[in-house]
Structures are given as C-alpha cells and as structure tokens.
Amino acid sequence: MSQNIDYSKGIYDARQLGAGRMLILGVQHMFAMFGATVLVPLLTGLSVSTTLLCAGLGTLLFHFITKGKVPAFLGSSFAYLGGFSIVAPMLADADGNLAIANTRMLPYACAGVAFSGLVYLAVSLLISTFGIRRIMRFFPPVVTGPIIIAIGLILAPSAISNCQANWLLAFVALGTVIVCNIWGKGMVKILPILIGVLVSYAVALVTGAVDFERIASAAWFGIPLHKEAMGLFAIDGSPEFISALFTIIPIALATMMEHVGDIAAISATVGHNYINDPGLNRTLLGDGLATTLAGLLGGPANTTYGENTGVLALSKIYDPLVIRIAAVLAIILSFSPKFEAVINTIPTGIIGGISFVLYGMISAIGVRNVVENRVDFTNSRNLIIAAVILVSALGFNSVGGLTFAVAGVSINLSGLAIAAIVGILLNAILPGNDYEFDSADGAGAPSSGNLQV
C-alpha cells in the first residue's frame, strides 16, 4: 500500500506507512534531539536519565494540551545554562576540571526552572484574555535579543575551562560541529552536536581518555529520578530558594520568544499556522507545564527543538504521532542507568569543544533576532535599552549580582535577572515603542535553528 504514496506533498497520516516505518521515523527524531538534550545534564550536573524522562513526558504533555496537532519535540533548553551556572555552578574535581555536580544547590536551580514554567502559563492566560499583539508589545526583539546575547557571553568562560581539560578533544569536537553545519547535507547538517560528540569520542577512545569503570558497575534498569536534584524538595522560604527564583525565572522571557519562533518555523515547514490553530496560548501552556514538570522532577527546562523541525522538512512526514513515538523511546532509555553511565564517560574536553561553539551560537541567535527584525540602533531609545541590558547582565554577573534584604530575607538578583527586569521596564516606560507582532508568521521571535538555545 505504501508504494503508491505521494511523498512530494508531505504525509500527514503516518499510519498509512505501516508500524515498521513509523518506528524508524520515531528513532530518527529521537537521534535528532539526542545530542543537544543529553549535553545539558553534562554541563549542569543533572541526571541524563532524568533529562530523557522529562523530555519524553514533557513532549507527550505538550501534545496532549495542543490537541495532538503540533509535530514538536521538547528537549533540554540551553538558555537556562546561564541560570544554572549562577545558582548551582559545577565544582572542580581533583584535576581542577569543572566536572562535579553541585548537589546542594541543584534542587534550588530546578525549583527556579519549575516556577519559570509558570510564567508561560501567565502569558498564555494573558494572550487568551487580551490577544497576542497587545501582550507581545512588552517583549520586542530590542529586549529579548540582547538578553539572549548576554546569556551566551556569560557562559563563555566555562567553555574555555572545559576545553582546558583536553584541547585536542575540544578542537576535534569543535571542528566536527563546524564542518557538519557548513558543509553537511541532509541528516548530517541536522545532527552536528551528536556527530561532533561521536567523532571526538572515537578520538578519545584511541588516545585512552575514556574511563569505562562506571559503565561496568551501573545497573541495566533503574528509576530515573534522583531526590538530590528534584526541585520539589527545594520549595521553601530560604534565601537560596528566593535568589534562585529571581535568577532563573526571567530567562523564561527569552525562551518564550524562542518558542514563538520555533512554532512559526514548524508552521512554515508543515504548511499549517499553529500560532492560530491550536493557538499560541495552547503551545505556550504546553511548553510551560512541561518545563514546570521537568523542574519538579529534577530535570532541565524544556523547549521546542529546531533539530526535529529539520527532520520534518527532510522526511516530509508531518504526523505528530511520529514525534510521540520518539518521546516514548526517550522514556524507555531513561530507565537504563547503564546507558546513562555510557553518556557520563564523555570526557570534559569534548564537552568544552561542543560548548565552545554552542555558547557562541546562543549569542549569535540573539544578534540574528535583532538583525532579522530590523531593530533600528540609530534610534536612541533602542540603543539605550540594549546597552543597559548588556551592561546589567555582564556587569552585575561579574560582581556576583545584587544582594539586598526584604523582611529579613537576603535576596540575590543575578545579572540576567536585573537585565530582564530593567529591559522590560525601559521598553514600557520610554516613548516610541512601535513594535507590532505579526501572528500570521510569528515575526519578531528568534528561532533556535539547528543548534538549540
């Protein structure tokens, strides 16, 4: 039956392909998200298994809330790495490498992630009440672009620190990612991070830089939840909890804009405007609830993945059922500590090489956001807003943020939090805000492309 299928116009019902082909397509989508998704726990100290579980559950929850209409996969967000590096920075091992998880502070960071998901819910409700254009005026590219730029710049020093563990592996990983992105075709261009890790890992095997001891001792089956990172156990009134909220919650302002861009990209790929049907309010709600769930379970924030949009364009199979199959496969993998142990053997130098280009891409996406939306920096208003955001983010971050006491509780505002708050206030106060969001194509929102923010 499948021999007579016309692929040129796209397939919207994958069941006509048969169970075998649908499974293969699901595996392809899982590999597309895999490299970027598992990199986040390696950079933050979170559990790989928990991360895969949260990605799978979050994707299924998103599909339920969007009525199963949107073919999007939700994986780990790189935008929140800046928040994790401030709230729960990785600790140095005996060799001086930043490779030990900060288990004392990780629950607070995850609690911040959980509460940041509630910002999505609030914006979703506001959009349902007042409409998209009126709400999006508070988040124009002149605000979100510089915030995204600052996130990448704040993370840059940690990339160099990781590279110093093994510059050979770092350069191999970095070079492979660049080659795949510039000259790669088809799936090679879509999977640069995964291929970069595999190629540099092969070099690490040859040079004897991989320690297999943890793999042998790991069990084949285990529950992918770890109490020492679950945000649910950190929800209290402590100064650490409150400071984590102020640091991480503002990041949602940038990731929501990325979400809009990704939904617009999926709409253009599939040929259906998902911003209008099932509606941006529903897609934001699904993304937000998935992020809250991940934070409570001890996983990183979720975000819609550009890699999987690339697979949609390549395969022309647009049925969301295929994405849900990938989500189930991710959940199944999350129950294998043996698999997590294999991922944890990736040397620090490789992580450094991947993050070297990745953190730069985060900032570059912010630059692309302001360029594509033609933000006029000859206008003093826009110039002042961008300047204050960048100096606030980088300057206050360099001195440990701003600490003050409220009702006897010490609160620390990170540079990112201050930048987001000041940027939104300046945009609302200063005259001349002429930004108009176009709900027809999602104009004004950055899309993550093939390297995720």
Automatic annotation (TrEMBL):
<feature type="transmembrane region" description="Helical">
    <location>
        <begin position="349"/>
        <end position="371"/>
    </location>
</feature>
<feature type="transmembrane region" description="Helical">
    <location>
        <begin position="190"/>
        <end position="210"/>
    </location>
</feature>
<feature type="transmembrane region" description="Helical">
    <location>
        <begin position="321"/>
        <end position="337"/>
    </location>
</feature>
<keyword id="KW-1133">Transmembrane helix</keyword>
<feature type="transmembrane region" description="Helical">
    <location>
        <begin position="411"/>
        <end position="430"/>
    </location>
</feature>
<keyword id="KW-0812">Transmembrane</keyword>
<keyword id="KW-0813">Transport</keyword>
<dbReference type="InterPro" id="IPR006042">
    <property type="entry name" value="Xan_ur_permease"/>
</dbReference>
<feature type="transmembrane region" description="Helical">
    <location>
        <begin position="383"/>
        <end position="405"/>
    </location>
</feature>
<keyword id="KW-0472">Membrane</keyword>
<protein>
    <submittedName>
        <fullName>Uracil permease</fullName>
    </submittedName>
</protein>
<feature type="transmembrane region" description="Helical">
    <location>
        <begin position="138"/>
        <end position="160"/>
    </location>
</feature>
<feature type="transmembrane region" description="Helical">
    <location>
        <begin position="21"/>
        <end position="40"/>
    </location>
</feature>
<feature type="transmembrane region" description="Helical">
    <location>
        <begin position="104"/>
        <end position="126"/>
    </location>
</feature>
<dbReference type="GO" id="GO:0005886">
    <property type="term" value="C:plasma membrane"/>
</dbReference>
<comment type="similarity">
    <text>Belongs to the nucleobase:cation symporter-2 (NCS2) (TC 2.A.40) family.</text>
</comment>
<feature type="transmembrane region" description="Helical">
    <location>
        <begin position="46"/>
        <end position="65"/>
    </location>
</feature>
<feature type="transmembrane region" description="Helical">
    <location>
        <begin position="166"/>
        <end position="183"/>
    </location>
</feature>
<dbReference type="GO" id="GO:0042907">
    <property type="term" value="F:xanthine transmembrane transporter activity"/>
</dbReference>
<dbReference type="InterPro" id="IPR006043">
    <property type="entry name" value="NCS2"/>
</dbReference>
<feature type="transmembrane region" description="Helical">
    <location>
        <begin position="72"/>
        <end position="92"/>
    </location>
</feature>
<dbReference type="Pfam" id="PF00860">
    <property type="entry name" value="Xan_ur_permease"/>
</dbReference>
<feature type="transmembrane region" description="Helical">
    <location>
        <begin position="230"/>
        <end position="253"/>
    </location>
</feature>
